[in-house]
Each structure stands twice: as C-alpha cells, then as structure tokens.
Amino acid sequence: MRTLVLGLALLLVPGGGWAQAGDFTALARLDPVGSRIEDTAGGGLAITLYLSQPVPWRVFTLDAPMRLVLDFREVDWRGATRETLGESGAVRDLRFGTLRPGWSRMVLELGRPLVLVTAGMAVDPRDQTARLDLSLAPGDAESFAAAAGAPPDPGWDALMTLDVTPVPPLPAPGNLPVIAIDPGHGGIDPGAERGGTSEAALMLALARDLAEAIDRSGTMRAVLTRSADVFVPLEARMTIARRAGAVALVSLHADALEEDAAHGASVYTLTEEALDQASQRMAERHERGDLLAGMDLAGTDDTIATVLMDLARLRTTPQSERLAEAVVAGLETAGARLNSRPRRQGPLAVLNAADFASVLVEAGFLSDEGDRAALSSTAGRAPIVAGLTAALRSWLDGEERSRDAVAP
C-alpha cells in the first residue's frame, strides 16, 4: 500500500486528484524562521512549514535510499537551509528546489524508516497564510519499502525524477533599476484600522508580494523601506531608497472613511503648492549628505541646496507624473478596483525627494468591505501586484526610450 496524501488547505484528498479551489497563480513563500524539522519523543519526526499562502501539495515516500518527498505548487525556498529549518537525527540530507516551472519539491533523505501518521494544511483566516504539519512515527524497513513508491497519478508520472533542480539565483543586480517599495506606517503607527486588521499590516503584505513580483521579473529589483512591523520615519524611508540607488519610490497606503461610500485604488503625486515648498522642507529636515544622490552638499547653505534640488525636480517631477499615469493604466488593465477618481494630487511628505520619481498608491479603502477583503488575501492583492509590476515595467521602458531619443 503506497503512502500518498494530497491536499489543499484544510482538505485532505486521499488517493485522488488535486482539490480544485482558489487561485494559486501567485508564488508561495516559505517562512524559514517559523518553519521547523525536528525529532520527536520516541524516535519520530515532526515537520512544520509556514507558507505565505495555501498551495496544492502532496507527500509520499521513496525507498533505496529512504526518502520523504513533498511536492508543492511553486514555493520560493530562499532563506531556507538545513541549519535554519533545524537539525534532526532522523534526516540525513535535505534538499529543495524547482521540479518544473510552476512546481517545487522538498526531499528529506531519512536515516531510519518512518511512517507518515498525520499530514494536513490549515489556513489562518486573518492573513491567509498556511501551515503544513506532518508527523511521522518509527517503522520497520520492510513496511517502509512496501509503502514506498511514486504514486500512479497520471499528471505526475513524468515528474518522478529523483533529482531536484537547484533553486535558481535571482538575476545579478548589475545595472537593474531599483524600485523602492514603501509600505506605509508600521510599529507604533498602525495607520487606519478596520475589521480587526490594520493598514500597516496589509500594506506590508502587499509590499512583500510586489517586491517579489518585481524581483522575479528579471528586469528590475526591489528594496523595501521596511520588512517588518516597525516604525520607520519618513526621512529614513527616503534615505533607504536613495542609498539603494532607487529610480522610483512607490509608497503603499489604504485609506479609511467614517462612511463606506468610497472604494478602489487611486494614485497621488505632489500638488504644485507642495512642489514649491518640498526642496525647502528637505533642506531644513535632512542631513546635507542625504539630499541628492551622488552629490556632496557638505558646507552648502539652504539656498544652494534648495536650488540644486529644484533643478533635479525639473527631471523627476515629469517622471513622477508619467509613473502615476502608468500605474492607473496598469491597475485598470489588470482588473484591480479603481476609485472613481483614480488620479489625484496631495501635499504628501513621503513624495518630497528630488532625485527619484515618487508616487503614493492608495490601494483601497479599509472602510469598504470589498477592498478590505481583497487586501487581506494573496489572491485579492494579485491584480494590484500585477498592475503595479506591469506599470513599473512600462514606465521604465518609456523612460529608456526617452533617454535614447535625446542621446547625441
């Protein structure tokens, strides 16, 4: 009797096909910090894997040598090693990588025969993250061999090679343009709060999804101004973007109103009045070494620094406007919910930098039940992520063509 468990979320499907539910087009990330592989009392083994979203999965065993095999709809294994997941006396070797495009595999080479006792995936209703738990108990070699074998599942017969393609590295940063993704609020500043969730938490989840999509595009690279629930001052957010060499900053927020009359995303750039004052505010609040990338302003007074920043804005202000238009078009094409007035302006301090394009995206309204539900799940955020990624790629292509057109 072969050991085979297939499943999705809370559902276990013994001996059958994949459960058909949900949208699994987004990449699932493994949390290497929370995930563990460890021995249990009596010589057993426990495996706990935390994923950023539920995915179709299955587990089975193979013999000679003894292995436990876990297959998933694609998982990003970055950051996971045998050391980070925990040492186990029952596991001789651990490897993971790409099985084929869109599918991933983890292989545990076992040091002794173990029998799969329980296996199941549960989804956290608050943030739609998933937890896969497996427990194995000691067995004997004869029983292990009898239960082992690749399952006779037609869709998988061609995939039962024993080798795993190593996880491909990200493209070398080289000259890839850097996009700074700025999840609003954080730490002591939760932002808007509705329905038991906060703007800070939802924007961090959106920022991670977006950064991942940008990195996987192979044409640009993302840097986050915060990667955890911490407070980062506005000045520090611009500093992070500048030191990373960002060509653009996309600040992510979600509004909330007392009444739930408004919904959908909108994109902001600075108002004319705010632009007139932005350089002066920057000169007053920032260190001289943190006003313009690649320029030493030590010893300059506010007047000179302001003039230099105003000159830089002659280039970056039109870039910001073009980026905002690209974002609206990208979101609309991707099917994301748009506000009835998606293109807006405001005196927003996070957009004050002079040396790179900046836009603020209000991804929706937490006061609207539909927007809040969409922002709370990977699938709901997917159209926003797709729209922003396409917009950034289109904008970068347009800026490159503009530079080529004016080159001597």
User: How many domains is the backbone divided into?
Assistant: 2
Residues in β-strands, percent: 25-35%
Please bin the fraction of helical residues: 25-40%
Shape: elongated
CATH top level class name of the largest domain: Alpha Beta
Task: Report the sheet with the most strands, covering strand number, pairing sense and barrel closure.
Answer: 7 strands, antiparallel
Q: Which key terms come to mind for this protein?
A:
alpha+beta; Immunoglobulin-like; Aminopeptidase; 2 domains; six-stranded mixed β-sheet; 8 helices; 21 strands; 31% strand
Give an overview of the whole structure:
This protein is α+β, with helices and mostly antiparallel strands. It has helices at residues 82-85, 141-147, 199-217, 234-243, 272-285, 302-334, 369-375, 378-406, and strands at residues 4-8, 11-13, 28-29, 36-40, 44-51, 57-62, 67-73, 75-76, 91-100, 103-110, 114-123, 130-138, 165-166, 178-183, 193-194, 197-198, 221-224, 246-255, 265-270, 338-346, 357-365. It has 2 domains: 4-166, Sandwich (Immunoglobulin-like); 178-406, 3-Layer(aba) Sandwich (Aminopeptidase). The strands form 5 sheets. Strands 2-1-6-7-10-9-13 form a 7-stranded antiparallel beta sheet. A 6-stranded mixed beta sheet has the order 17-14-18-21-19-20, with helices on both faces. Strands 4-5-12-11 form a 4-stranded antiparallel beta sheet, with no helix packed on it. A hairpin with a 6-residue loop joins strand 11 and strand 12 (130-138). Helix 5 (272-285) crosses helix 6 (302-334) and helix 6 packs across helix 8. The radius of gyration is 25 Å and the shape is elongated. Mean pLDDT is 78; it is low at 8-25, 154-172 and 282-292.
